[in-house]
Structures are given as C-alpha cells and as structure tokens.
Amino acid sequence: MPPHEPALLDGQRPVSTKYVASGSGILMPIGGAEDKLDDKIILSAFALLAGGKRARIVIVPTASSIENAGLRYKAIFLGMGVESAEVIFIGDRSDANGDAPLELLPDATGIFLTGGNQMRLSAIIGGTRFEQLVRERHLAGAVVAGTSAGASILSSHMVGFGASGDTPKMRMATMAAGFGLIDHVIIDQHFRQRDRIGRLLALVATNPGLLGVGIDEDTAAVINDDNVLEVIGRHSITIVDGSDMYSNVFQVKGHGEITVSNARLHLLTPGHRFDLQSRLLLDK
Asked: Alpha-carbon distance 1 to 225, whole Å?
C-alpha cells in the first residue's frame, strides 16, 4: 500500500492533500497528450500518489505500437526521483499469463497504462492473470493510472472505438468490456480536442444508468475509494448524467440521429470535485 504521507519528489508540491492522505484504491484516468516536458503536473501527481520517492512504478505499454513508449515513461519517472520504474512488455496473451507480471506487480505501488489502442489492451490482457493482478493491486492500495486508451479501459464499460461529432447517432460508437476497476461509468478521452460529445451522449442514451466521463487532453481525474473525482491538469472534464434523460434511441434506424432531452451536463475545471455516487458537484 502506498504510504499515507509519501516522500515528495524534488521540487514537488502535493496536488491535493485530500488524496495524499487517502487510504487505497486511487484511479487516475488521463485524457491523453499529458505534458511530459515542462511542469508534468499529471505525471508528477501520479508519482506522488504512488509514494513519491518511495514509489515503485510498473509501466505497461501494451496499447501502444511505439516500441519505446514504455521506456520514455520510465525515464520520466526515474528522472523525478522515484525508487523504481520498470516496464512490463506484454505482446500477447501468453505474456499476460506468464511470470513477468508475477515478478513485478506484487510490489508495485503505482501501475501506469500507456496510450494507444484500447481494443488491443482488452484483447491481449482481458481475462488474464495480469488483469487479475492489476485488480488485486488496486484493491490493495496501488494507484492505477491510464492515459488515452489506458484511461478508457479502467472502467467496466469501455468505449471500443467510434466517430467524432456533436450530434449523437446510432452506431456512432462501440462498447466493450474494460478492466472493471470502476463501475457505472464510461470514460472517453481526447474529449473536446477530438469532438467526442456526440458519441458519449449516444452511449449514455443507450445505457442511461452509466455516467459518461469525457476527459480532455492534458487533464486527469483523480478518483478516490469514496468515488469522489477531482480534476487536475490544464483543461476540463465533461460529465453526462442520463438519470432523467429521455431519448428515442430505441426507435432510430441505421446511422440516424438520436433525440436527447433532459440530460444533465457538468463541465468541471481543475480543482473541482464531483461525487460519482450521488452525481453531485462538491465544493461549490
């Protein structure tokens, strides 16, 4: 379990004292394209929450087709002064069921999933020993973060792929099973930068019991074990609540447009908190 009072990295200040003192189960979905060169607010927050100088981080670049994606994050985290940062290369399901996860994950205080293709993550890792170990480490207190594709797969219901656009349409997006580290939400990423409000509305219209969470680039949600979300980073998070939504999604044919009414829309800027359970803004 990460220490309750992590040793700060050189020149680092806590992003939120609420989360530094949190007991366990922190999730950090990141909208992608997080700053890796300047202040590194999001990546340094992850390292801090994983234990600061005492952090033992495992990086999983499975979603990426870029060979050195994991090594780049390793260099960043080691440059921050963490105790250790290791890359687990999982290229197929035999790797995910092999010994490498067993060797590195049990001691990890932070697990970082890189961006890329979330369907690749799901197809290679879903249902394997590795996925089970990630879930166990999260329940034991390890911080689990994912950027871009790595963010989407954290929830039980994952956006597999889909189209951009303002207007919700049938067949605009496909949903698949994620890792299930958080229930009752759909996480989308690169949100406003890639104009994904339409597909999130379409997914919530199809599944109004789920809360849609759209995360902008260089922005992250820090979610504690009480299901309270705090926004950090440069931009914002859009939340779509379909609890009282009306839609005609069951009548629309083909790729037709969907009528949506009475959906609650929340746009949260950095520093604001939202209770995912009660679906209410906190700290007004």
From this structure: 13
Rounded Cα distance between 124 and 246, Å, is 37
CATH number belonging to the domain at 22-272, selected among 3.40.50.880, 1.10.10.10, 3.40.50.2000, 3.40.50.300: 3.40.50.880
Residue 280 backbone class (left: φ over 0; alpha: ψ -120 to 50; beta: rest): beta
Q: 0.90 exceeded by the pTM?
A: yes
Which sequence positions are flagged as catalytic?
A: 148, 190, 217
3-state secondary structure of 139: helix
What is the tens place of the pLDDT at every residue in 108-157?
A: 999 999 999 999 999 999 999 999 999 999 999 999 999 999 999 999 99
Residue with tokens 């590195």, as numbered in its chain = 104
Nearest of 45, 100, 101 to residue 76 by alpha carbon: 45
| Contact predicate 181/144, CB 8 Å | yes
Rounded CA Rg of the chain: 18
**Residue 278: is it exposed, middle or buried by C-beta count within 10 angstroms (0-12/13-18/19+)?**
exposed
Asked whether 28 and 144 are in contact (CB, 8 A), the reply is yes
